[in-house]
Structure formats: structure tokens, C-alpha cells
Write a structure and sequence with these properties.
The chain has 15 helices and 20 strands. It is an alpha+beta fold and about 425 residues long. Helix 1 runs parallel beside helix 15 and helix 11 runs antiparallel to helix 12. Bound molecules: flavin-adenine dinucleotide. Flavin-adenine dinucleotide binds next to helix 1, strand 15, strand 19 and helix 15.
Length: about 425
């Protein structure tokens, strides 16, 4: 048995670590020079930025477990904050010091910035969903769900809408209510720490993919960066993988590419036509990140701050988080008119909105806009996503888009990688 893992994002590295842990020879092919895929380091001047500012939460149990396994201590590399939802000058909601789910319900009732009736209605809505086991008879949009349960007041704009966009990267009008409830369930009904926010203190490649690669190599595996796979073909003995004009044969393939890259390989193998079709049906949502360098003494009142503003949704204080003093990273998730703006103009508008919200700021000395146009799949109602298992016994899919109850996140990617590796291990051990 020898396994080719195609793609060195979080899904591919999770698969590789799980296989290497059990002594399976594994080779990871990653096209880019930097591991991490859609959660990777981007060098700018002498700073390690990220392609996108990421939030993890305490419920990311498998990501945290694998980080520990490869020696990347979550306690050291992530800033853990009890759940706080702070929309600048509008709403402050903090988890109370109570057991789950009271910590969030009490926090909601005590939130500052929304009328009492609105808070009560929101708490009732949550309790109603909880009594139903967070299950809908038929999936619908988040907007329909919220309308049906009278969630149209200020908390709609300050809590439910931004929560939906942050968690599903899909506007509530188009987002799956069932997936939204699954996320709510995990935060409310997990243990108290499940809703904690975990903010990276290092770049996203250092957080897991790089230590994962060290772990795989130390167990005899190979992690090849700058190696773009150009063909995968079925052979009698398994699969041939072509890369840089050379062919290697493997008994198994874990295809851990982003869906829009996986499709081309799936189309080429007739038994995988159905998976190719399922991937072809997915649509995507963008995430834009705007980094601005202010004088080193400037920062935010919190490491992460929300805004009820035209463009700006969240801003991160990279000084407080990663020692990059004066760097503010702003996030704009999901589709919108900002996609039509030139990057220069987008940076100018973000700077302007920060000033409107926080008071006068000097011109930033540099800015960097990173547009991820297909950041995640659009998490819409009743979406049929491809399974990890394919009709080819030894060819498995991994990635944040593979069938699961969750939206496209780091944890979904990691779980899918572990899942694909376990399917290989089960068959070996049976
Ligand atoms: C800007 C942004 C912000 C986000 N924010 C959050 C967040 O706050 N919290 C959260 O949990 N998630 C967030 N996500 C989602 C999260 O990053 C993704 O769900 C996750 O990284 C997907 O991992 P993956 O391994 O499935 O796919 P990918 O990361 O896309 O990995 C696929 C890999 O395959 C490689 N590849 C492509 N073609 C080839 C080839 N031919 N040969 C070899 N390799 C190839 C790519 O270079 C890439 O490294 C965000 C995503 C983006 C883009």
C-alpha cells in the first residue's frame, strides 16, 4: 500500500498525518510552494500575512487534536477567548460564566445594544430550535427560518445576519437554514469551550500544514511542494500520478483538491462521472481580506471587532494577535458590490470606514488586498455534495466541500481528510 495525497491544504495534510501515524507510506503533492491552500501564509514585505483572516472555534475538535499530534500546541498558537460578539458601538454579547448552553443564553439576555423584547425573542427562538433538536423537516433559507420565527428586529442585522455570513460564507437569503442550525447546535450544546473563539497567533501555514509535513516526513513519507499533478490515470495495480513529466504508481489516491480543481481530474476517469457532476453543480462565494499598515501604536479595542458598516464586517488587530503592530486586517465575506471595485478603491473605502467608526486615522503606509473569489462553496439549502467514497474503491475525495453537515471550514476540511484516511485504513485492517 502506498497513498498519493493530491493537495497540501488542511484536508490533504490531515489525511497524510492520519495515514503516516498508522505507518502507511504516503506522498503529498502540492502545486504551490507554500502548504495550506485556502488557509496559507502570504509573504508581504517582511511580514507573514495570510490569504484570509481565519477564525477557529472551540468546536474544531479534530483540528485541535491533529495540531497536538504534530506538535503544534493550540495553547501556544491560538488565542482562546470566551465567545464574544462585539459589533463596534452597536452590540456587545459575551458568554456568561455558566455551564453550556446557559452561558450563551444568559449572554444573549444580557447583551447591550438590543431592546429587551428582541433579546427575549431571540432566546425563545434558540430554545425552540433546541427543543426540536435543531432539525428542520425541510431545509430552507436562513432568511425564511428567521422570518418564520419573528427574528426581524435589530438582532437580525447585528447578530443573525453576520453570524450566518461568518459561519456559512453565504448571505442569509441564500444560505441553508439546516446547516446554520447545525453550527448553532455545536456551539450551544457542545461543552462550554465549544463556542470559544480561537484566533491564530501565527500564520496559517505554521499553524498546522508545516508541522504536519514535518510529522509525515519524520515517519518516512514525502511532502512535495511546488509539485503540480497534471494527470491521474487508472492502472491495473492502482493509479498513476503524473507530475513534472514523471509518472509514479500508487495503490490509493486521496484527491484533496479544491472542488473547482478536482473536477478536471474526476472528468478524466469514467467511473467518477457522477462525482464530477456533483462537483460541477457547486457554486462559490468570495472572501476579501484587506490589510492596512498604520503607525505601530495604533490598534483596535479588541483583537477582533465587528462593524455594522457599509463594507467592513470584521477587523483584526494583527499587533495584538501576531506582534505585527499597526497592521489591521479587515474581512469582507460573501458576495456583494465590493467585488466590482478595483483593489485600490476597496482599500481606500475600508480605510474610510475604519475612520468613520474609530475616529481619525493617518493614511496607511501600505495596503494589501487579497481576493479569494472562490473561498468556499455556497452553502445553500438541500445541497447535494459528493461523498468521500467513490465507485473506485481506492480513490477517495477529501476537502471542505465533501458531504457533511457543516459549511466549508478548516474543521470540515480536516475531518474529511481524516475520514478519507480512515476508509483506507479500515479496508487495510479488515
Ligand atoms: C479568505 C478565506 C477566509 C476563510 N475563513 C475561514 C474561517 O475564518 N474559518 C474557517 O474555518 N474556514 C475559513 N475559510 C475556509 C477554509 O480556509 C477552507 O475551508 C479550507 O482551507 C479548505 O481546505 P481544503 O484542504 O479542503 O482545500 P484547499 O485549501 O483548497 O487545498 C487544496 C490544495 O490543492 C492544491 N492544488 C491545486 N491543484 C493542484 C494540483 N494540480 N496538484 C497538486 N496540488 C494542487 C492547492 O494549491 C491547495 O493547496 C476561509 C477561506 C478563505 C479562502
Amino acid at each position: 500500500m502506498n497513498v498519493a495525497v493530491i493537495g497540501g491544504g488542511y484536508a490533504g495534510m490531515a489525511a497524510a498525518v492520519t495515514l503516516a501515524e498508522r505507518g502507511v507510506p504516503v506522498t503529498v503533492f502540492e502545486a504551490a510552494r507554500t502548504l495550506g491552500g485556502r488557509a496559507r501564509r502570504v509573504e508581504h514585505l517582511d511580514l507573514a500575512l495570510d490569504n484570509g483572516l481565519h477564525i477557529l472555534v472551540g468546536a474544531y475538535g479534530e483540528t485541535l487534536r491533529l495540531m497536538r499530534l504534530v506538535g503544534a500546541s493550540p495553547e501556544r498558537l491560538l488565542l482562546r477567548l470566551p465567545f464574544t460578539w462585539c459589533i463596534h458601538d452597536r452590540l456587545t454579547l459575551r458568554a456568561a460564566g455558566l455551564p453550556s448552553p446557559l452561558h450563551l443564553l444568559a449572554g444573549l439576555m444580557a447583551a447591550r445594544g438590543a431592546p429587551f423584547a428582541d433579546r427575549l425573542s431571540a432566546a425563545r427562538f434558540v430554545l425552540r430550535m433546541r427543543r426540536r433538536g435543531y432539525m428542520l423537516e425541510r431545509d430552507t433559507t436562513v432568511t425564511t427560518l428567521l422570518d418564520t420565527h419573528g427574528q426581524g428586529g435589530p438582532l437580525n442585522r447585528l447578530l443573525w445576519r453576520p453570524l450566518c455570513i461568518s459561519a456559512l460564507n453565504t448571505p442569509p437569503e441564500a444560505a441553508s437554514a439546516q446547516v446554520f442550525l447545525n453550527v448553532l447546535r455545536d456551539s450551544l450544546d457542545g461543552d462550554r469551550g465549544a463556542s470559544d473563539l480561537l484566533l491564530p497567533r501565527v500564520d496559517l501555514t505554521r499553524l498546522f500544514p508545516d508541522p504536519a509535513a514535518d510529522y509525515v516526513r519524520a515517519r518516512g513519507g514525502a511532502v512535495l511542494t511546488g509539485h503540480r499533478v497534471t494527470a491521474i490515470d487508472e492502472r491495473e495495480s492502482g493509479f498513476s500520478v503524473r507530475c513534472a513529466g514523471q509518472e509514479q504508481t500508487f495503490s490509493h489516491v486521496v484527491c484533496a483538491l479544491a472542488p473547482y480543481h478536482a473536477e478536471a481530474f474526476l472528468i478524466g476517469i469514467s467511473a467518477l462521472a457522477e462525482a464530477a457532476e456533483a462537483v460541477g453543480r457547486l457554486s462559490y462565494q468570495p472572501i476579501y481580506s484587506v490589510y492596512l499598515q498604520y503607525p505601530v501604536e495604533r490598534g483596535l479595542s479588541a483583537p477582533m471587532l465587528g462593524f455594522d458598516s457599509g463594507l467592513l464586517q470584521w477587523a483584526f488587530d494583527r499587533g495584538a494577535l501576531a506582534g505585527q503592530h499597526g497592521v489591521i486586517g479587515a474581512v469582507i465575506s460573501a458576495e456583494g458590490a465590493h467585488q466590482d471595485l478595483p483593489q485600490e478603491e476597496l482599500a481606500r473605502l475600508v480605510h474610510q470606514e475604519l475612520q468613520q467608526q474609530l475616529g481619525p486615522l493617518p493614511e496607511p503606509s501600505w495596503h494589501r488586498v487579497i481576493a479569494e473569489k472562490r473561498a468556499t462553496f455556497a452553502c445553500t439549502p438541500q445541497l447535494k455534495r459528493p461523498e468521500s467514497r467513490t465507485p473506485l474503491r481506492h480513490f477517495l475525495l477529501a476537502g471542505d466541500y465533501v458531504a457533511s453537515a457543516y459549511p466549508g471550514t478548516i474543521e470540515t476540511a480536516v475531518r474529511s481528510g481524516i475520514g478519507a484516511a480512515r476508509l483506507i485504513l479500515e479496508r487495510r485492517d479488515s
